[in-house]
Design goal:
The protein is an alpha/beta fold. The protein contains 11 helices and 5 strands. The chain has a 5-stranded parallel sheet, sandwiched between helices. Strand 3, helix 9 and strand 4 form a beta-alpha-beta unit.
């Protein structure tokens, strides 16, 4: 949750550059508990630092002359105006809501964002990328300070409501499912062969499974696949990730499949398309790779382990 300090600081800076009339910085922990004096003081200080130390309050137009910002602003304004006119043609905002146009537009945008987060095309630092698997949230959850009252007055429902959500929710649920289970899954990185490739793929695998809060065990490498699987078995690993180079996988995979059978779920770091069918024929069923839907993959590994 402390990453929220970075997020809200850059968001506040962006708002100041944009020239907003006023802003409120939410405490970093508002999403999961009632903020305390520390988080509230930190939220105030973020604004003070930007005003008193970065001097955003002393410059009329901080982004003036920046081609990137000016071009982005013009693009947003142009798109917004077209959307505004389209809504006007439908009879205005309420008419567009009744028709379902507003809901469809926001849901389409939300679906794209959710897909980008799930595949890590868009990064939520500390959530879907570079998560700390030694950090736990279950015992820190408390009464949240932000809630929506249902109200007591009678209101007429004129249209389907908009759906609100936070982009990190699905990954947070993933982490909490791991934390709430009686058995925390262990992932063993079986690094072997080419030093550069095995280290790169071990780093990718560690980052991949840390997102779900799995315990990841790295090592300095093995001379044989059998020695690596034996070490993984001693560590009581639920998942063994084979980390090596594409050139070495055709020889290593059959050995790993035979050695790991009945002991753990075997996963390959990478997806070498020219030889992937050969690897599947040798018994390799699971792959982790860039561009994959990380959320769906990790949910599947939780299911396979029995969470």
């Amino acid at each position: 949750p402390y990453v929220n300090l970075l997020r809200s600081t850059t968001e506040t800076m962006s708002a100041a550059i944009a020239g907003v009339d006023s802003m409120t910085v939410q405490p970093f922990d508002v999403a999961y508990r009632r903020p305390d004096s520390f988080s509230e003081r930190t939220a105030r200080n973020q604004q003070i630092i930007l005003r008193e130390e970065s001097y955003f309050s002393k410059i009329v137009d901080p982004s003036a002359g920046s081609y990137f910002v000016e071009n982005l602003t013009a693009s947003i304004a142009d798109h917004a105006w077209k959307l505004f006119l389209e809504i006007e043609d439908k009879g205005g905002y309420i008419a567009a809501m009744k028709e379902g146009f507003i809901q469809a537009q926001t849901e389409e945008s939300a679906a794209k964002r959710r897909a980008a987060i799930a595949s890590r095309k868009e990064t939520l630092l500390g959530t879907n990328q570079y998560a700390n698997f030694n950090e736990f949230m279950k015992d820190r959850l408390g009464e949240t300070g932000c809630c929506v009252g249902s109200g007591t007055g009678k209101t007429e429902k004129i249209a389907a409501p908009l759906k609100f959500f936070r982009l990190g929710e699905a990954f947070e649920n993933l982490r909490l499912r791991t934390e709430n289970s009686e058995h925390r899954p262990k992932v063993f990185l079986l690094t072997i062969g080419n030093l550069t490739m095995r280290k790169a793929r071990a780093g990718f695998a560690l980052n991949f499974f840390a997102v779900a809060g799995f315990e990841v065990m790295d090592n300095t490498g093995f001379d044989t696949v059998e020695a690596g699987v034996e070490a993984a078995a001693k560590a009581k690993a639920d998942i063994i990730v084979l980390c090596s180079s594409d050139d070495e996988y055709p020889a290593l995979v059959p050995q790993a499949v035979a050695a790991a059978k009945g002991k753990a779920i075997l996963v390959l770091a990478g997806y070498p398309k020219p030889i992937v069918e050969e690897l599947k024929a040798a018994g390799m069923e699971h792959f982790i790779f860039a561009g994959q839907n990380v959320l769906e993959a990790l949910e599947e590994y939780q299911r396979l382990i029995g969470l």
